[in-house]
Specification:
Length: 153
Amino acid sequence: MTPSWRKGEQEHADVNAVECDLQIGYRHVEFLVGSGAVETVCDPSAFPEYSVTPSDGSRAGTHYVSASGTRIPNLGEQRLVAATEEGMPCKIRIQSAKVSRPILSVRKLVESGREVHFDDKCGTIRNKKTGQSTTIRKRRGIYMLGMWLKTPN
């Protein structure tokens, strides 16, 4: 699923590449990979092409607690369709809350049959059933996972 024009391209796409993204039905997004995150979560405005629907957490009045101790209410969930940078298709159920950036929960990855490994330069997420893996990049001390988000028509 990774567009062929992206293979080997530099980290940041230029304006023409971004326009091409939209034309082929995907856009590039990044998730912070959080080993301390209880849930995979993002602000609903990060993925406006996907509707927010009520979740068990939003119906129950669930709140998350930020690193600063602020309580953040669960607003529902979004069900994303994406592909890894290596081209593997995936679906992600993400909880909606007012957070500063999309966060991918290592706990949720492990619970869903993935193995997550970090070292001093990068990391990997490996599906234990299929053996397929995707690379996590480390930038400015933060582990980030790039993905191609399908933009529904």
